[in-house]
Amino acid sequence: MRIIQPYKHLNSLVEKEALEPDISWGLRMALAAMVPLFWGMYTGRLPEAGWIALMAECICWVELKGDFQHRLKLLAGSSALALIFAIVGSATGHIIWLSVVLMGIVAFISSLLKNIGNRGSGLAICVYALFIFCNAYPTDTIPELKERVALVSIGVLWNGVAGIIASFFIPAQRPYRRSIAIIWKAIEELTATISQGWEGTGPRSNEHDIFLKEKEIRTAIDASLDLFEKMAHEASEKDGHEYILAQVRKAAALSGVQVLTMKEELGNLNRRNLDSTVRIKIFTILRATEQMLERMTVYTINPEKGEEMILRSRINRLFKLVELLRERLNVDAADEKNILRFAQLAERNAKIVEAAFNHLQGIVNERSMIRSYSLMKTIFILHPMYWIRYIQMLFNFNTFTARYALRSAIAAAVAMFIYKFWDIDHGYWIPFTLIIVMQTYFGATWQKARARVIGTVAGGIVAGLFLKLPTGLYLQEALLFLTFIPMVYYIRRRYSVAAFFITVNLVLLFNINRELSDMVIMTRALSTVAGSLIALVAGFALLPTWDKKWLPIHLANAICANYSYFRFIFFDKDETTTWTKYKRKAESSNSNAYDSFSRYMEEPSFRKRPFAIFYYVITHNIRITRELNNIELEQDDTTKEADINTLQRQQELILDCLKAFNRNMECTRKLNPDASFDILDAGVAIPGGIPLSVHQEIYLGKMNVELKAMNKDLAVLAEKLPRIMQL
After folding, report:
1. CA 20 to 30 Å from 20, out of 3, 518, 689, 710?
2. Residue ranges of domains in the chain, CATH in brackets
3. Spatial distance between the Cα atoms of 442 and 460, rounded to a whole number of angstroms
């Protein structure tokens, strides 16, 4: 067991690295920073090497994701921003008021960048880190400025060369494959969550846990679409490998819906009343589905022969288990219907995975990433129209981003003024910490401030102990190299740990330049606390964004998204628009409402506020989205011939749902009075999409129950809302 456990941990680490190459990212950053430092130690020019290393390290915080086109754009954009703000900071450091004004501008731009995702966060670091550090060590003369420009330019070129060289070893479609594999992984984790308790040894997972896993699937799909925008219906066979991967991504999204539908069918069963043999068979099918998805995750990234054989065996095993369940089923009639439906869905899911597997086999002779782009195609990537487009996207901000950016700008300017006016030694850590800690919402700012302070203080203490080590064996340099990997690895997993390693890294980096003392470590810790406090005060008092106000708006948007989805299916069908567009919008709106609710519960309040009523409405809306997904997925099983009575019953059911939706939309106006939407008159509306299959009619009936239940909760919420806003 002692041998097996470490092996399992190592295998898990390798799988995580295949999905999220954080260790490779950390190694790239380590090489980018350490090579100039080694050059500086060898030539006796450590101060110059320090600027090259700092430039390369800051740009490396931009994660290179996507294909070669995305990577080159990121490298070019981050390099340009880093160079500009490094020069501006170096030239203005001696002028206090100009530094304060520019700090506000830099914080404003950085905040806008941080709001465009992970890539934006890395770009923001390039902007504010280099401006702050260069402003703290300004140049005095024109020759010094020219030398600084030369050094940071070398850092830019060195980092660009390292990034491009890394692309030589990556297959062209590996980034696309990786984004799809993350979707499969999220579905696997959802299946594992659903299977809990069916083995008979523990409790079943609750709706909250299942929704969080469902939310991860939506996040993974959105992340893939953000990098590779062309969807399956937009791609054609002439797109080659991209067409195949678009089909595989679509299959992954459908597989996630099928797993959720399997969960809904299991929810109709009473686990305690089932025979143990039947319960074990259900659990075995769930485990087999989980194992099949696990191997699909691996095969999507590494389509090797060995993985192909394992995946085929997992798919065939699932087919056999489903057939075995059908053959040896001996339960009550009501349970038998639900179990057979569960078996049908499990079999359908296996067919979806099998189809995706067959698609992946069509990718042959895959070239490396850099070889897949011609010189002219690469040059066209840097066309000015791309830069204009990205600038327009950056400054196309809404109320949230504008308030956040303005709050950050004012707070950062105040922090820079405090540092400059009182000439605090190494006080540039105050505005640096503030911009890192400052988040769009107060609750997130508090969490990050707490993690930052804990990590910084602990890191400073440990780094101070490291400085007592003997220097003859270059132990400090070796430790500096090793800190790059964990600080990148934990940056998205546990920020307090990442802050610890970042502090150790910076302390050791400054010590190599012989600029460090015990007093500097203490100053950095105190500056971190001061920057965090300013961020908290600004988040609470300066243009605050409270979810007490925004939660009803997010909730109204989620209800409206489901209404549009329902109307598209039954009344506003447009052959030029795919149903997945409405599915994606509804699920994203549900996620926004849930996130807002989570922040709302963490906001400070002097009086007890109602939470349950919001949660009830959100969960109703999530279930409605699932039923709409199920209805649309069952289109292939619709009955083409139906009698008059069946058609009339289905039409009445659709109109009944429309009436319930309309009542909910009237309540929604009270949640968001500024919302503009039209309500379809149930008296004149003619439903389409009928006849419905048996299962579609069942899903529609379940949705009707959810709509009516939500209407009661919405009415209560609309009545209480004015009082809630005053709490």
Report:
1. 3
2. 1-170+372-396 (no CATH), 174-366 (1.20.58.220), 400-545 (no CATH), 559-575+597-726 (no CATH)
3. 27
Closest CA to 265 of 319, 194, 323, 332: 194
pTM: predicted TM-score of the whole model, two decimal places: 0.90
Using DSSP's 3-state secondary structure scheme, residue 398 falls into coil
- DSSP assignment, residue 205? P
| Residue 12: closest CA among 185, 269, 152 | 185
Biggest CA pair distance of the chain: 92
Angle at 604 between CA 602 and CA 606, to 5 degrees: 135
SS3 368: strand
DSSP 495-509: HHHHHHHHHHHHHHH
Distances (CA, A) of 578 to 563, 566, 582: 16, 13, 8
The alpha carbon torsion through 49, 51, 57, 61 (nearest 10 deg) reads -170
CA distance 540 to 532: 12
> Residue 579: how many CB atoms within 10 A of its CB?
18
Task: Report the chain's terminal Cα–Cα distance, integer Å.
Answer: 56
The whole-number pLDDT of residue 657 equals: 96
Distance, in Å, from the CA atom of 698 to the CA atom of 548, rounded to the nearest integer, reads: 37
CA distance 367 to 374: 12
d(CA 49, CA 524): 23
Please, are residues 512 and 53 in contact by the beta-carbon 8 Å criterion? no
> What proportion of the chain, given as a percentage, has pLDDT over 90?
41
